[in-house]
Amino acid sequence: MEKRSVVQGAILAGIVAVLPLGVMAQELRVGVAALATSADPHFHRAGYNFDLRENTSDALTYANGVTGDLEPRLAREWKIVGDTEWLLTLEPKAVFASGQPLGADDVIYSICRVRNVPNSPGLYTSFIESVADVTDAGNGQITIRTKTPDPNLLRSLSNIGIVENPTGKTLTFDDSTCGNDNWLETNGFNDGSISTGIGHYKLASFTPDTEIRLERNDSYYGTPAGYQTVTIKSLPDNSARIAALLGNAVDVINAVPINAIDSIETAGNIHLADMPSTLLIFLLPDQHQEPTPKVSGTDGKNPYLDPRVRRALNLAINRDEIAETVMGGMAQPASQIILEGVFGHNPDLAPYPYDPAKARELLAEAGYPDGFSLTLTAPSDRYVNGAQVAQAVAAMLSQIGLDVTLETFPRSIYFNKASAYEYSLYLAGAAADTGEGLSQMINLAATRDSKPGWGGANRGRYSSKVTDGYLEKAQSTLDDAERESLVRAAAKQSHEDDGIIPLYHELGVWAVRDGVHFEPNANLLNIYYTARPE
């Protein structure tokens, strides 16, 4: 259970002295593999949108991807009043671009809006699922009541940017519309007519698929950002991203491709910043539809409904070879969802062996001695070496008698198709958005849509009442040891069901021009406000 030290509140303000004003009037230029699809802080639950939100729209708290700690943001302090009641003190110095100070009505409106974002391809509702009520407690405080005890409440709310309430009134919180029909439009955030909230940076311009420009918020209540402006360029092509860095067009790039390591290390004025990440790259087979898309040779059956077929896929993949050869050592082979060292990782789960002979045997037992035809689908521009990994997986599956066709789509198309269940076997990724494993398990292994926000990344629709039961109980268990035991049990069950086919946890790697301090983090977010000239 998170505990908040009184000292923390003073730290944010105190660090300002570390940054002389003269070094802050500069531009940071960044090239990213995937640009945010919207400036709306509640529009789409995806890593590249978390990036922009974290820099421009503070939440009540911040789950630090470097230390793992929960830190104050718009809530300067908090305490647990009872098993299901939290009292939060809002930051009195936090002011919106309009000049209006942060109030309880803004928090209530923002949390209510999460359920009411039109045309969202991935809502943030799982982060607020446990919230039963939010009320103004007076004196700059709010009370949040939960449906059941929720030890990760403030970690979940660290993903919800707080925007200014346009209604002029305090809403009454409920599980639907909160009695309101005046919801800010996503296009207004994108064109700059609506402020994204209170953050280290303000949005200066948003050009989809091209460029985002940020300006330092000089009215920010805490530690000021280290650069006056940040220009974020969309450079999905690996070669173009590397060329921009080596050609001095950008100062930082993320998702460093494997084949660029040598050229970066020999450039002389560029260094690497890296750390293990919670991002799991995995395959998901369709475990719902029959027949399933893009599969033939099965007499109309969905072969992935048979656990023997799913186990065969797991045994057919040489994870060590993918991590070492395809990923150039910049990955850690995975046989479970949660990264080692992260809350909820189960140390008792043995790695899946590479055993193609056993895989062929299992296919024969399932009624497919000659295999069947399938399509493996992957994004072409979302994950480091993602397309190459998919090619390697396709070759491995072919070795057990499966006739595999590989197709790739740009991410702008890929995830919409995945959400429409147009794939039978697809590659994707999911990270621990709150910095611990429970949220990651709920996002990936919980039955999709069994509760609002559950199974957001589970487009294969793996479903287990046993797994769900462990996760549901873990959500309301305040005791850390008991909660971790439940998460580990859920991980064990999903492992035994072969509901997910884990491949590896990606190593987060940035390339940074000398003279720039840039912090990597396990959540693979690009945090621009901690960057500074050296």
Oligomer: single chain
Q: Helix tally?
A: 15
Strand percent estimate:
15-25%
General form: globular
* Sheet/helix structural class: alpha+beta
Give the strand tally.
20
Mean pLDDT: 92
What summary fits the major beta sheet?
A: 12 strands, mixed
Indicate the radius of gyration in whole angstroms.
Answer: 23 Å
Head-to-tail CA distance between termini:
37 Å
Poorly predicted residue ranges? 1-25
Kindly state the percentage of residues in helix.
25-40%
Structure in words:
The protein is an alpha+beta fold and 534 residues long. The protein has 15 helices and 20 strands. The chain has helices at residues 8-14, 47-56, 104-113, 153-157, 186-191, 238-246, 261-265, 307-316, 319-326, 356-365, 386-398, 411-419, 437-445, 465-475, 480-497; strands spanning 27-32, 61-63, 70-72, 75-82, 85-90, 131-138, 141-146, 201-207, 211-216, 229-234, 252-253, 270-285, 295-296, 331-333, 373-379, 403-409, 425-430, 501-513, 516-517, 532-533. The strands form 4 sheets. Strands 1, 8, 9, 10, 11, 12, 13, 14, 15, 16, 17 and 18 form a 12-stranded mixed beta sheet that branches. A 4-stranded antiparallel beta sheet has the order 4-5-7-6, with helices on one face. Strand 15 (373-379), helix 11 (386-398) and strand 16 form a beta-alpha-beta unit. Helix 13 (437-445) packs antiparallel against helix 14, helix 13 runs parallel beside helix 15 and helix 14 packs antiparallel against helix 15. The longest helix is centred in the C-terminal third of the chain and has 18 residues, at 480-497. The chain is globular. The two termini are 37 Å apart. The model is unreliable at 1-25 (pLDDT under 50).
